[in-house]
Write a structure and sequence with these properties.
mainly alpha
Length: about 190
C-alpha cells in the first residue's frame, strides 16, 4: 500500500530530488518510469494466477494417496494451469519441483497462495480512495488509519475495508494501474 505514494507526482516531488542540485525528477524521466512499471505486467499477473490456481487445485482436487505418483502429479498440475501459461515453443519443466511455498510444512500456503494477487487487488482499490480524494488527503489518511490500521484484528478484515472504502473492493483500480483496459463486462461481473 505504502509504495503507491512513490509513484504519484505530488508525493514523489516531496522527497525524490537530485542529491547535489535538489532538482525534482524530470517529467520525461517520470513518464518513462511509469511506462516501465508495467513492462510485462500481463505475464506477471498470469504467472501469479497460475500459481494460485495450481495451489488451490492441488490442495482441493488432487487425490491424496499414500504414495504419490510423480508423473500423475505433474500432469495434474500442468492441466490445472494450462490456460494461464503462455504457449512457448519449449515449455519449462513443472514448477512443482521448485515451488517450496506450497509444501513447506505447517506454515506453508496450503491453498492460500492466491492471497498475493488478492492483496494487490485490495491495496490498489484502497489507494483508489486517495486518488479520488487527493493523494495527500488528510481525511482519507485518517480514515485509513482509523478503519484499517487501528482496527487491526478487532473485526473481520472485509468489515474494516468496507468501513474505510464504503464498499467491497473491485478489480478496476488494479487493472487500470497495471495498464490494462477495464471492460464493461468485467466491471459488471466483479461489481465495479
Amino acid at each position: 500500500m505504502m509504495e503507491n505514494w512513490c509513484w504519484e507526482r505530488e508525493s514523489l516531488d516531496m522527497f525524490a530530488r537530485h542529491h547535489e542540485t535538489g532538482e525534482k525528477i524530470p517529467e520525461k524521466l517520470y513518464q518513462k518510469m511509469l511506462e516501465a512499471r508495467n513492462f510485462q505486467k500481463g505475464l506477471a499477473i498470469m504467472r501469479q494466477l497460475s500459481l494460485g490456481i495450481m495451489d488451490l487445485d492441488l490442495h482441493i482436487d488432487f487425490a491424496q494417496e499414500d504414495e504419490i505418483d510423480e508423473q500423475k502429479l505433474e500432469a495434474f498440475a500442468d492441466r490445472s494451469i494450462e490456460e494461464y501459461r503462455p504457449q512457448w515453443k519449449t515449455q519449462s519443466p513443472p514448477i512443482l519441483h521448485r515451488f517450496g511455498h506450497l509444501f513447506s510444512g505447517a506454515v506453508g500456503y496450503a491453498a492460500g497462495y492466491y492471497s498475493y494477487q488478492w492483496s494487490e487487488v485490495i491495496e490498489a482499490d484502497a489507494f483508489g480512495k486517495f486518488l479520488e480524494d487527493g493523494v495527500l488527503s488528510p481525511e482519507s489518511g485518517m480514515a485509513f488509519r482509523k478503519q484499517i490500521l487501528a482496527a487491526g484484528n478487532s473485526r473481520e478484515a472485509m468489515d474494516s475495508y468496507v468501513a474505510f472504502r464504503g464498499r467491497k473492493p473491485t478489480l478496476e483500480a488494479y487493472l487500470t494501474r497495471a495498464g490494462m483496459e477495464v471492460s464493461e463486462e468485467s466491471k459488471a461481473e466483479f461489481g465495479g
